Amino acid sequence: MRYAPYERLLPLAIVCAASMGCGDCEPISYVKGKVSCGGKPVPADTRVFFEQAGKGYLAARVVQEDGTYVLKHKRAEEYRPGEFVIYVGPPTTYLTEVEFRALKKKVNADFRSRVEKPLPSPDGVLPVKYYQSSTSPLRETVKQGDNVINFLLED
Fold this sequence. Notes:
It is built from 2 helices and 9 strands; from the N terminus they run αββββββαβββ. It has 155 residues and is α+β, with helices and mostly antiparallel strands. It has one domain: Immunoglobulin-like (Sandwich), CATH 2.60.40. Strands 1, 2, 5, 8 and 9 form a 5-stranded mixed beta sheet that branches. A 4-stranded antiparallel beta sheet has the order 4-3-6-7, with no helix packed on it. A hairpin with a 2-residue loop joins β1 (29-37) and β2 (40-41). The relative contact order is 0.21.
């Protein structure tokens, strides 16, 4: 049986391509963890946001009943490493979108006026300072590979 010259080179080309790998691929991160407030898991349906400066929020995920979350953004679970500000959205069962936007506006006004202590949460669920990236004290570095990021919301 006779082979065309390119057919003999095909296995060699496959081996070379596989050995080169992905030199220009960007590093990927995966993030999961647990959120608690007052020593108890936050309510199910609390939203968790990870935001990078100048890029907006990159990930959001609803917390499960035990306080655990796995970040997903546009159905993907992989992210680029970097510095993130973490903030939460109130449980979807407590505030409507309109109420949440009004709350964010109020928190912004209070932050700009440099109120010493944030107002208590109007929904009575979580401390209001965690509802916005500009007032949340939570900062984390997401590294390449698997990341477990647990955080406690305190008054």
